[in-house]
Amino acid sequence: MDTHKPIHEDFPSTIYGQMGFAIFIIIFGLAYLLPEQYVPEGTLLLSAGLIMLAVSGIKWAKKIAVDWLDVAVGAIFLVNGINNILGLGLAVLPVLLVILGFCMLVSLIRNHALNAQNHATPNKGI
After folding, report:
1. What is the C-alpha separation between 89 and 102, in angstroms, rounded?
2. What predicted TM-score, i.e. pTM, was given to this entire model?
3. CA angle, 105 as apex, 102 and 110 as ends, to 5°?
4. Largest interatomic CA distance in the chain
5. Contact 64, 12 (CB under 8 A)
6. Residue range 22-49, pLDDT digits in tens
């Protein structure tokens, strides 16, 4: 009997992170293979942010725990990539603070909703 199981069967979120990382490595390699004029500065940051947010979105849709730090870092990469590509000149720290505050707010609301749901279920006896 074969008891060997791939790691992603025990940790379903791992496979999505690994796939995202593999896609990023492919994009990273292509960015260096293409001539510089075809790959604007910020492309790798933009790609990393999109991949991190996509992986988090897939995990959320499949009801797998999402690490909100991954979402925050992905959003920061995305904003910085867009900033570099379009030359918008956005300051990174204020964006970081807004994203961090948003993540904290979502976490508080989610925890409040879970607590309210737990207190609303009737006790079926001792």
Report:
1. 22
2. 0.65
3. 125
4. 70
5. yes
6. 999 999 898 889 888 888 888 998 999 9
